[in-house]
């Protein structure tokens, strides 16, 4: 009889005194799962007469509640610390549960810092695609057809196309071209982004890295503007008193071109391993935008002039944190990453 069974199982439940979490689980399996006894008794209930249904319905529901209540009490008893118990009761005096925040990637931190400095000088951020065509990455930038940088050794080609190969961009200078093609000066922009070069991965080289390129084009822009802008940038980034020096250099898209060194941030010019005991470290390439590049982008080179510069974010970051192995930046090792600033956004 259904009524007898309910009585018998109720007694069993009342006497149930678990001594381990395993006992609680046994209880659940016996009574509460879909093939358990509670469900079985409800199934049996379906076939009793209407008279009995009225009285037994209530008894059966109470039985179900009893089983569920016993189970949740037993579960609370074995599910960890007494903390759990208090939390269930809502003890508002308990300290909140902390949660761990991630930290910013050192390259993101450096990029942000660079961008902030130039923003204050009126530069806007401009971005472009990582998969580029030959025109934007090379031709418009005045690279002669046989220039070695186009070579298979440096460039990851994606698709060979008659006269306009598709490749992963080798520098963010491609964004200069995209920006200038869009309109007329003045342009004052910085262009952060990832670039790719076909190099064997080692502590000192990687097949991808990050650059920030800058471009300023207007009437009467001179090399003095370039020097002062970059000098100011370095004082902001590495502190007042950081020295700069410009060495003549060559880039197809700038004329004249220079490389800029700063006094070593680690030894302050005394000489250390990082600056190879010279006291100076190179941080960027720069120059006056070649008139050919302006013309290629539809800009009158008689009326306008401009300067451009480009730096590797990895290099800038290394000079701050002395990271000796480039591979660390892309290995996602939490021990490395968690050393950097945590930012609450
Ligand atoms: N694009 C150059 C590089 O990748 C850097 C650079 C940018 C130099 C702008 C001069 C002007 O090395």
TrEMBL record:
Compartments it resides in: Cytoplasm
Cofactor binding remark: Binds 2 magnesium ions per tetramer.
Alphabetical UniProt keywords: Aminoacyl-tRNA synthetase, ATP-binding, Cytoplasm, Ligase, Magnesium, Metal-binding, Nucleotide-binding, Protein biosynthesis
InterPro entries linked to this entry: aa-tRNA-synth_II, aa-tRNA-synth_II/BPL/LPL, Phe-tRNA-synth_IIc_asu, Phe-tRNA_ligase_II_N, Phe_tRNA_ligase_alpha1_bac, Phenylalanyl-tRNA_Synthase, tRNA-bd_arm
EC number(s) recorded for this UniProt protein: 6.1.1.20
PROSITE patterns hit by this protein: AA_TRNA_LIGASE_II
Residues annotated for Mg(2+) binding in this entry: 255
GO biological process: one example: phenylalanyl-tRNA aminoacylation
Keyword Lipid biosynthesis attached: no
Region (Disordered): 74-96
Biased composition (Polar residues): 74-84
Cofactor (UniProt): Mg(2+)
GO molecular function, one term: ATP binding
A Gene Ontology term for the protein's cellular component: cytoplasm
Ranges where the Aminoacyl-transfer RNA synthetases class-II family profile domain occurs: 114-319
Keyword Transport included in the entry's annotation: no
Gene3D superfamilies: Bira Bifunctional Protein, Domain 2
Reactions performed catalytically: tRNA(Phe) + L-phenylalanine + ATP = L-phenylalanyl-tRNA(Phe) + AMP + diphosphate + H(+)
UniProt family annotation: Belongs to the class-II aminoacyl-tRNA synthetase family. Phe-tRNA synthetase alpha subunit type 1 subfamily.
Subunit structure comment from the entry: Tetramer of two alpha and two beta subunits.
HAMAP family given in the database record: Phe_tRNA_synth_alpha1
Protein name (database record): Phenylalanine--tRNA ligase alpha subunit
Species for this entry: Sphingobacterium deserti
Gene name of the record: pheS
């Amino acid at each position: 009889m259904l009524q007898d069974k309910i009585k018998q199982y109720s007694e069993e439940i009342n006497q149930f005194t678990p001594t381990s979490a395993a006992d609680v689980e046994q209880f659940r399996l016996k009574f509460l799962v879909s093939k358990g006894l509670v469900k079985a008794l409800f199934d049996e209930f379906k076939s009793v007469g209407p008279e009995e249904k009225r009285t037994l319905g209530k008894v059966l529901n109470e039985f179900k509640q009893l089983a569920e209540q016993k189970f949740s009490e037993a579960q609370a008893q074995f599910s960890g610390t007494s903390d759990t118990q208090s939390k269930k009761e809502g003890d508002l005096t308990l300290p909140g549960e902390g949660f761990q925040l991630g930290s910013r990637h050192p390259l993101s931190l450096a990029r942000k810092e660079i961008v902030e400095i130039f923003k204050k000088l009126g530069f806007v951020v401009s971005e472009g695609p990582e998969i580029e065509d030959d025109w934007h990455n090379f031709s418009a930038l005045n690279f002669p057809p046989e220039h070695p940088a186009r070579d298979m050794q440096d460039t990851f080609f994606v698709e060979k196309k008659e006269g306009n190969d598709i490749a992963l961009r080798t520098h963010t200078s491609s964004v200069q071209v995209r920006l200038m093609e869009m309109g007329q000066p003045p342009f004052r922009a910085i262009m952060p982004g990832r670039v790719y070069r076909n190099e064997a991965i080692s502590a000192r080289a990687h097949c991808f890295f990050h650059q920030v390129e800058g471009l300023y084009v207007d009437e009467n822009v001179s090399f003095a503007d370039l020097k002062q802008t970059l000098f100011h940038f370095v004082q902001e980034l590495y502190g007042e008193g950081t020295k700069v020096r410009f060495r003549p250099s060559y880039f197809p898209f700038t004329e004249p071109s220079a490389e800029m060194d700063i006094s070593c941030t680690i030894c302050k010019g005394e000489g250390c391993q990082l600056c190879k005991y010279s006291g100076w470290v190179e941080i960027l390439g720069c120059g006056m935008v070649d008139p050919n590049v302006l013309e290629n982008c539809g800009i009158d080179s008689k009326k306008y002039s401009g300067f451009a510069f480009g730096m590797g974010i990895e290099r800038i970051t290394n000079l701050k944190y002395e990271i000796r192995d480039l591979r660390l930046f892309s290995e996602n090792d939490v021990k490395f990453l968690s050393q950097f600033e945590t930012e609450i956004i």
